[in-house]
Amino acid sequence: MHLLTGLVIVVMAAALVRAVAPGKPILTALGGGIAAAALLVAFHQDLAGTDFWAGTIGFLAILSALIVVIHPNPMVSVLSLILNLICLALFYLMLQAQTLAILQVIVYAGAIMVLFVFVIMLLNLRAEEGLRIGRGVQRWGAIAGGIGFATLVLWALRHRQGHAWMEPGRHAGEFGTAASLGGLLFGQYVFATEAASVLLIAAMVGAVLLAKRRLE
Amino acid sequence: MDPRLPALLLESTAKIALIFFVNLTAIAYLTWLERRVSAWIQDRRGPNRVGPFGLLQPLADGVKFIFKEAITPPQAHVVLYLLAPVIIFVPAMATFAVIPFGPSLEILGRTIPLHVADVDSGVLVILGLSSLGVYGIALAGWSSNNKYSLLGGLRSSAQLISYEMALGFAVVGVLMATGSLRLTDVVTHQMQYGWNILWQLPGFLIFLIAAFAETNRLPFDLPEAESELVAGYHTEYSGMRFSMFYMAEYANMITASALAVTMYLGGYHVPGLHLLNLPPNVAAIVQVAAFTAKTAFFLFVYVWVRWTLPRFRYDQLMNIGWKGLLPLALAHILWVAFLILMEWA
Prior knowledge:
The complex is a heterodimer.
Chain A (H helix, E strand, L loop, with lengths): L1 H19 L4 H18 L1 H6 L2 H19 L3 H21 L3 H26 L13 H22 L19 H11 L1 H26 L1
Chain B lengths: L4 H37 L15 H11 L10 H17 L9 E4 L2 E4 L8 H22 L3 H32 L4 H11 L7 H14 L11 H4 L9 H26 L15 H27 L7 H28 L4
Antiparallel strand pairs in B: 1-2
Helix pairs in contact in B: 1-2, 1-9, 1-10, 2-9, 3-4, 3-9, 4-5, 5-7, 5-11, 7-9, 7-11, 9-10
């Protein structure tokens, strides 16, 4: 768990270096490498205790997330984002949430990311085109947001002890099957589910209307 | 380690190897079938020189593909260009894992179920994996750095997304009747209550049309469209890499046919087989043969349709998908729900 936190910080460090010095991959790699080495030294005891698959998939997830941020080619970035979403699906699978895992693949990796690929192909973006990081507000906003998120994650991990929902193995048997998930969605949470679907349809109609108005 | 684990691993590995072998052989002989049937439809002879009835033609084709020069265009994005055929081929082969192709065999006191994985949400696994195949096509088109490839890739990804919806909604009817996403449950339900095609014919037809579009076969082979786009997304590919796109197409055809059989034609069910009182293993083998025969029939339909119908125009394709099939599939869901509610089904 600490190792994963550490790697999240690596991403943050890399994003920070990239934001401060855009277009300098060596500096980014160096910054990321130093942060990784520091964390490896700091958390080497946790490293030995990490579950093999959790460690491997976690590493893949962090690596792909890093590539999304750092790589200059937009298509490679999008592909690493797909890999990252698949890693997330594997995490769901490890937590026994099998239906959620496959839905994650269908909805995010299969449907939403296709639109990303589609846009990149339509605009025919090449390396570093249109993906330059903004100056001023955007850059400093990203840095502040990154630091804030890292602090939040660290704080959450520091205070995680003593919470029942953090203990593994509390769910078993029917948990995570399509039947139990469907029972929850259309039983206990039916109002939220239907409200979300109405909201999505309203958003879709609104988007079509806005796009059409601009055409005329 | 669990003492049952080695036997389980051996069993699973054997089944995976068997499916892999059978599927690859079937893919090879589908190319032969395609050429022979097209020749028969067009009153020609087709390949008949290599071996009896030209049966060794796929072997000769394979050798030819391996020895052809594998060209990489200088302007291509090399990594993605090499990765694209793999991305399209792997999901095409992997989807077969959740399809039950028979009941179970009794060998040495072990009951061996005849499917690789009986996943709780098996239908979703198939839809999810096949939706990943789009990236292979899109990437092949983009990484080749060729305008024909790019246009072919764009068209194809649009087509696949459009028809995925109709395919998914058509399947919902079957799933509502079964009450489970597990494919073995779908088959056993049909064994008890009769094949789904008998009372869900519109759903079956929508499924079949959408499956044609999903596998990029005529009349929906717009990604390829040799008359306007040279060869679409695989214009720049040659040798074994080119053949991988074709192998993926045929693998997708096999999975789509097997899925159609499982969802609507009772899977491996043979009506009246239990009346013969065969020994369980013999009955199982008969049922596997029945499953194979049903799937082979659908594969023949694929080839038959390809050499019968002309290609749609792109706007016609989109109109059929979004304005025809999708509303029909939704109406069909309502109809099936009504039947289930009235307890007529």
